[in-house]
Amino acid sequence: MSARGSIDALRETVGSAERMVVALSGGVDSTLLARVARDVLGRENSLAVTAVSPSLAPSELSGCRQFAQACDLRWIGVDTDEGSREAYVANGPDRCYHCKSELMDHLLPLAEAEAAVVALGVNLDDLSDHRPGQRAATERGAVFPLVEAGFSKAAVRQAARELGLPTWDKPAGACLASRVPYGTPVTFATLSRVAQAEEGLRALGLRELRVRHYGDVARIELGPDDMEKAFAERDSVVAAVKGAGYTYVTIDLEGFRSGNLNQGVVR
């Protein structure tokens, strides 16, 4: 048996399925899984699917499309409508459960038609965070090959680098709704404002970031390498975020923390 966390271990895990439908979000986890599924099972036995909705930034959708073309993946985008679910819009701590349920409602018919299993790019580190979406996926029969093969986030990045994937050092991402504090309704207008603000900051060369939405206030979280640059280009940062519709622009001095809004949530 191959060492856990190795590409060979992942190939063995993926190879145990005859056909696979992979949820492709564009991050390093899902791109690694989609690429290995394509390599091991073949193009006709693997399908990459991207959920298209206001919670996915436009740049992420184009990134998925480009990645699929570069790796010769069989790929489609499907329109999901989590915004029609009252529990999702209400944005309680279980919001991700309802979002993932919507995703599975679209993936399962595709998997049935393909006689395939649904696979998500979840790694071992994800299991320690508040991720109710994982429960929704598990309840509906999805599998997590990266977890089964023993992949931490660091191992995912190492494997992606070994395979030459352009996403190997891509900053961690999450759906745009994760920028909205629990209890604040998730609306199309809010998601659009967050997306525009983050795109504006990335256009300035900032990479690891989140724009947390607090009404008229934008609280920006930045990675350590971006903090100094943001202060040096303060006027441009303010203009980019105000251009998205925010009145006040703040930078969180604690910096970027993935899953920051999950603090205090009972798991």
List the defining traits of the structure above.
267 residues; 11 helices; three-stranded mixed β-sheet; alpha/beta; single chain; four-stranded parallel β-sheet; 43% helix
What does this structure look like?
The structure is a single chain. The protein is α/β, with parallel strands linked by helices and 267 residues long. The chain has helices at residues 7-15, 28-41, 58-70, 86-90, 95-114, 132-139, 145-148, 153-162, 188-202, 224-232, 234-242; strands at residues 20-23, 46-52, 75-79, 117-119, 209-214, 217-222, 248-251. The strands form 2 sheets. A 4-stranded parallel β-sheet has the order 3-2-1-4, sandwiched between helices. The chain has a 3-stranded mixed β-sheet with strand order 5-6-7. Helix 9 (188-202) packs antiparallel against helix 11 and helix 10 crosses helix 11 (234-242). The protein is globular. The two termini are 34 Å apart. The model has no long low-confidence stretch (mean pLDDT 93).
Beta-strand percentage?
5-15%
The biggest beta sheet is recorded as: 4 strands, parallel
Dominant shape: globular
Distance between the termini: 34 Å
Q: Number of DSSP strands?
A: 7
Q: Could you say which structural class the secondary elements and strand pairing correspond to?
A: alpha/beta
Residue windows where pLDDT falls under 50 for at least 5 positions: none
Element pattern in H and E: HEHEHEHHEHHHHEEHHE
Summarize the structure.
Helix content is 43%, strand content 13%.
